[in-house]
Amino acid sequence: MSLNKSELTSFNTYTFFKLPSAWWTGVRVTEVDNLHAEVCVKHRWVNQNPFGSIFWAVQGMAAELSTAVFLMYTIRKSKQPVSMLVLKNQAVFKKKAKGLIKFHCAQGNKAVDAVKKAIKSGKAVSIKLKSVGTDPFGDIVSEFEFEWSLKKKLK
Question: Domains in the chain, please, with CATH?
Answer without folding.
Answer: 5-152 (3.10.129.10)
